[in-house]
Amino acid sequence: MRSKLGFLWQHHRVTFLAFLAAILVTLFFVIRMAVFTLYWSDPDHRNQPPQDWMTPRYIAFSWGLEPSDVARALGVTPAFGPRPNLEQIARTRGVPLSVLYDELAALLAPTDSLTRAPIKSPDDSSGEVSP
User: Fold this and answer.
1) Is residue 130 a part of any domain in this protein?
2) Between the CA of residue 2 and those of 5, 9, 15, 35, 78, what are the distances in Å?
3) What does the pLDDT look like over 55-109, one tens digit per residue?
4) Is 37 a member of any domain?
5) Does 48 lie in the same domain as 8?
């Protein structure tokens, strides 16, 4: 094995280094995918109520939405910088965090109704849970 690697190193150094670089890049993305999958498959990370440390992208992943939809709902533009959290967005927009929470509640309400247990309808007098 060593003589084969030595031959590749002596006669095909650039190709050998490119192959090693390709292996390292592939390994990086495989590990990244595994970590990402394990993190988001944990039920504790799904449908988390928004908090001031969360970014629009984190909220989007937690709720299964598109990051651009969450950013648009919060009025995030490139002027906010890379990965602003809710606290930074509120400060930049000059509004209290409660305004952002209300905007997020409006966006997440349809998703929330699909993921939570059914609730009793106000006009349902039979006592059964509505679908």
Assistant:
1) no
2) 5, 10, 17, 34, 52
3) 999 999 999 899 999 999 998 988 788 899 999 999 999 999 999 999 998 888 8
4) yes
5) no
Burial of 71 (0-12, 13-18, 19+ CB in 10 A): buried
Q: Is this prediction's pTM over 0.90?
A: no
Q: Does one domain contain both 51 and 84? A: yes
Tokens 């280094």 correspond to 17
Q: Which of 62, 60, 35 is nearest to 46 (CA)?
A: 62
Whether residue 65 sits in one domain with residue 6? no
Concatenated DSSP letters for 9-75?
A: HHH-HHHHHHHHHHHHHHHHHHHHHHHHHHHHHSGGGSSPPP-TT--HHHHHHHHT--HHHHHHHHT
Range of the domain at 93: 44-114
